[in-house]
Amino acid sequence: MKHLPHSLVVFTLGEEFYASPIEPVREILRIPEIIPVPQASPYVEGVMSYRGHVLTVINMRRFFDLKPSKPSPAQRLMIVRLPSSLVGLLVDSVEEVVPVTEGALEPIPETAGNSLTRRGLAGVTRWKSRLVMLLDLFNLLSPEQVHAVTQLRPEVVA
Q1: What predicted TM-score, i.e. pTM, was given to this entire model?
Q2: Is residue 23 assigned to a domain?
């Protein structure tokens, strides 16, 4: 992450807390109708209609290889701008938007995760006395993954 974000969106996946800089997050929605896409990547929940466009929805539990959960009223969809497109990130809940103070972010320990997971991790911070993993949404997906999710076209849904 090249600069210190102004604010973070804190969200959950299971019992774990994660955060994203607020800048790429366009909107947080209740879960809309999501259409499954045959033969899509396992972490792709499907596609949805958003303001006249078809967006890919990524199930963040599947992306991080976490056990599935039952649908819940707390689940939210974060609409996020990646460098090449908008995508929806399905999370268990969105907790709060919090300001970032100087010195609040710490680097990821070298022993945390593998090269695939570390690519999308920007640091660690604390929120309400809990450790929170800060995601770098621009680097979370590999270039190949970004290409795959942005190639899902409306005609696939039709």
Answers
A1: 0.85
A2: yes
